């Protein structure tokens, strides 16, 4: 029913035993009639759990999602999501969210594989797609038919002591004077690349001989203390001497610019900004690694440290605190590094031997028999 009040049209109708009486906020009867129909339809859709979605392009939805998440993400995480979107937009950017089908996802995965991307990288990118669709209440439609790519959990290598010696020798010759202490710290503490790069002097406890990790990949890694062994303490003490005016908030590995000096073109640094961390060691690391003839990634230094701790008999729970693993990661890594602990397991079960009992006569005289699935099995 439509009626006027003060020059404005109102509508009134019954819905589920209730009277709905609302203003159309218009002096047009036609507008009021359309408003009544729209309102009635909204109530009916809400009653039956039907929700209308706006037709939105993936590009627009992606930008809105990132703007929504940006305040809650670390700068590194924001950079990763932006990088993911750079790969996703050419494939999904022109599509409406509601038109994205499992087949589109499968084609994207195959295209990225053909480009040489690793399954782990592709899964991270699909995680971004999932987050965008989930925010727009559309992921549930695709989830049953979308499969993540299988990834290997054994990627990584531990370098040998001989390789380590060659690598450190070449790092010490690098034009980047911070490469040697950074690599030494990685091998001695199992810290992540970013954890080392962003270290400040207030995180180095020379009295307690500990390093306090700052920003980390996970909440379990952030703020963890790692003892410095003799090698790490010696190298970091020598490195600190190069910065007599260092302040607690200054970066341990500051941004430095290098140039060539003299007729022999030996590299030298000519400016240092302790308020900014070094950008990366990529160029210096690759050059030193190739000169040493060692094929490994910087992350393999962390893998090397972890392997050596476990091989020495260090309990996995202790290693997990040093590595900064979450409980779920610790369980996963117990399978990945399980073969290393076999020797320790042999020693562990020796504690369960107890005292032996002398048995007279031939044993066993009558082997015990067990009934299993309808078959008679004789115990060995």
How is this structure best described in words?
By secondary structure, this protein is an alpha+beta fold. The protein folds into 3 domains: 2-47; 58-145, DNA polymerase, domain 1 (Orthogonal Bundle); 161-339, Orthogonal Bundle (hpI Integrase, Chain A), CATH 1.10.443. Helices cover 46% and strands 15% of the residues. It is built from 15 helices and 10 strands. It has helices at residues 29-47, 58-69, 75-92, 102-114, 119-135, 139-142, 161-172, 179-189, 193-197, 230-241, 282-292, 299-311, 316-323, 327-336, 342-350, and strands at residues 2-5, 8-15, 18-26, 204-205, 210-212, 225-227, 254-261, 266-277, 369-372, 375-378. A 3-stranded antiparallel sheet has the order 1-2-3, covered by helices on one side. A hairpin with a 4-residue loop joins strand 7 and strand 8. Helix 7 (161-172) runs antiparallel to helix 8 and helix 7 (161-172) packs across helix 11. The longest helix is centred in the first third of the chain and has 19 residues, at 29-47. The radius of gyration is 32 Å and the shape is elongated. It starts with a strand and ends with a strand. The relative contact order is 0.07.
């Amino acid at each position: 029913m439509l009626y006027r009040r003060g020059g404005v049209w109102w509508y009134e109708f019954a819905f589920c035993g209730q009277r709905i009486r609302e203003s159309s906020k218009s002096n047009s009867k036609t507008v009021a009639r359309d408003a009544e129909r729209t309102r009635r339809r909204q109530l009916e859709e809400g009653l039956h759990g039907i929700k209308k979605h706006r037709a939105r392009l993936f590009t627009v939805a992606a930008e809105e999602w990132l703007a929504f998440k940006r305040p809650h993400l670390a700068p590194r995480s924001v950079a990763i999501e932006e990088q993911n979107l750079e790969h996703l937009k050419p494939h999904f950017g022109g599509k409406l969210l509601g038109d994205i089908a499992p087949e589109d996802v499968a084609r994207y995965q195959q295209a990225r594989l053909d480009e040489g991307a690793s399954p782990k990288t592709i899964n991270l990118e699909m995680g971004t797609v999932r987050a965008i669709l989930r925010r727009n209440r559309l992921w549930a439609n695709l989830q049953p038919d979308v499969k993540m790519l299988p990834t290997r959990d054994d990627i990584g290598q531990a370098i040998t002591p001989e390789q380590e010696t060659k690598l450190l020798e070449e790092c010490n010759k690098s034009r980047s004077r911070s490469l040697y202490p950074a690599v030494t710290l990685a091998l001695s503490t199992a810290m992540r690349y970013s954890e080392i790069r962003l270290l400040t002097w207030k995180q180095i406890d020379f009295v307690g001989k500990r390093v306090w990790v700052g920003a980390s990949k996970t909440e379990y890694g952030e703020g963890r203390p790692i003892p410095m062994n003799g090698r790490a303490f010696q190298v970091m003490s020598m490195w600190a001497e190069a910065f007599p005016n260092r302040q607690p908030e200054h970066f341990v590995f500051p941004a430095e610019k290098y140039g060539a000096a003299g007729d022999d073109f030996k590299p030298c640094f000519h400016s240092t900004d302790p308020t900014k961390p070094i950008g990366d060691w990529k160029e210096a690391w690759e050059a030193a690694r190739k000169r040493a003839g060692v094929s490994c990634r910087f992350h393999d230094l962390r893998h090397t440290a972890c392997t050596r701790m476990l091989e020495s008999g260090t309990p996995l729970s202790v290693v997990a605190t040093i590595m900064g693993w979450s409980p779920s990661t610790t369980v996963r890594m117990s399978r990945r590094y399980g073969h290393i602990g076999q020797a320790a397991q042999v020693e562990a079960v020796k504690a369960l031997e107890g005292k032996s009992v002398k048995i007279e006569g031939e044993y066993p005289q009558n082997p015990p028999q067990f009934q299993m699935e309808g078959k008679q099995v004789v115990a060995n």
